[in-house]
Amino acid sequence: MYRISVIPGDGIGPTVIRHATRIVEELASALGFEVEFVEAPAGDAVAAERGEALPHESLEKIMGSDACLKGPVGETARDVIVYLRQRLDLYANIRPFKTYEGVKCFWSGLDFVIVRENTEDLYKGVEDVGRDHAVSLLVITRRGTERIARVALNMARERRGKVTVVHKANVLSSYKFFRDIAIEVVKQGGATVDEMYVDNAAYQMVVNPGIFDVILTPNMFGDILSDLAAGVTGSIGLAGSANIGERMGVFEPVHGSAPSLNPEYANPIATILSSSYLMGWLGMSRRDERLSQAARAVEAAVAQLLKEGRVITPDLGGRATVGEVSEAILKKALNNLYKRK
Ligand code: GGG
């Protein structure tokens, strides 16, 4: 039995999460593994009601689970996801991006991943704000940089073998420190490594994104470049992600809570893909092929649905609802399983 904690979140969160968990449930019963979902409320609405965005009971539920599926939260990101990354030492933020056949965008054939250091940098939370000043400390450590560089290296070995270290070493010594250590780790590991200033990386991602395989970058640049990468590959509604530590993973869409969007027309794919990354990670760490199979079936189903281009939400130019897209993905994922048997 796998226990998955679930943070529904704010805005479109509860709706996209409900559809994603239903898909996991159906695949579990088709493949014969058991899942138990444990709700762990957190976010803006919880903060308004209870005075804290991540209540202790929710934290306990998350810590007692095998993995967590998280919906987007609004203004309380710092108290929920940034806190969880540090509390659970989820030091690797893995954000894959690719173009899909059928999705309109300027590029085709793109496939790259942002490996974002997830616990340090300006997001460490060492701050002082007074009436006339505000200071945020930029923290980079050797240990933090070496371990994230090893993640990028291992990922590059499974992909096209190249890591681009993105930084701002010409202005900030802390990023020079990050760059030098990261390059050394990747070089020692035998992968191809190059480097780029973050401003140039932003430019290249728009005009020449095919040059990227694995982008390794400190926390804040990874956050910002992720939205750019999502835009370049078609829609932020397609971008799922993983926050991973040695023993725990929290999986979430890259997008925010989109409070002005009617949840009925939200794109559930980013959350559905995040749930497939969760199953893939659990399958690998628990050596359970059934979960890996479920993950592959969902990812293939998403690609098939997008290629057909009929059942798609408004962000992709369609008129389908969140429920229609989710049901179509579920049907295709189940079909993919039966085809393989
Ligand atoms: N623009 C996407 C968005 O709102 N993401 C949520 C967010 O800001 N999360 C904080 C983080 O990933 O560090």
List the ligand species.
Answer: glycylglycylglycine
Strand tally = 12
Parts with pLDDT < 50 across at least 5 consecutive residues = none
State the separation between the terminal residues, measured CA to CA.
Answer: 23 Å
Q: CATH homologous superfamily of the largest domain?
A: Isopropylmalate Dehydrogenase
What would you say this structure looks like, in words?
This protein has 341 residues and is an alpha/beta fold. The chain folds into two domains: 1-96 and 238-341, 3-Layer(aba) Sandwich (Isopropylmalate Dehydrogenase); 111-232, Rossmann fold, CATH 3.40.50. Helices cover 46% and strands 18% of the residues. It is globular. Glycylglycylglycine binds at residues 72, 77, 81-82, 223, 227, 254-256.
Write the layout of secondary structure elements.
Blueprint: E1 2-7, H1 13-31, E2 35-39, H2 44-50, H3 56-63, E3 67-70, H4 77-87, E4 92-98, E5 111-117, E6 127-129, E7 134-136, H5 142-158, E8 162-167, H6 173-188, E9 192-197, H7 198-207, E10 214-217, H8 219-232, E11 240-244, E12 249-253, H9 269-285, H10 289-308, H11 322-340
Parallel strand pairs: 1-2, 1-3, 3-12, 5-10, 8-9, 8-10
Antiparallel strand pairs: 4-5, 4-11, 6-7, 11-12
Helix pairs in contact: 1-9, 1-11, 5-6, 7-8, 9-10, 10-11
Glycylglycylglycine binds at residues 72, 77, 81-82, 223, 227, 254-256.
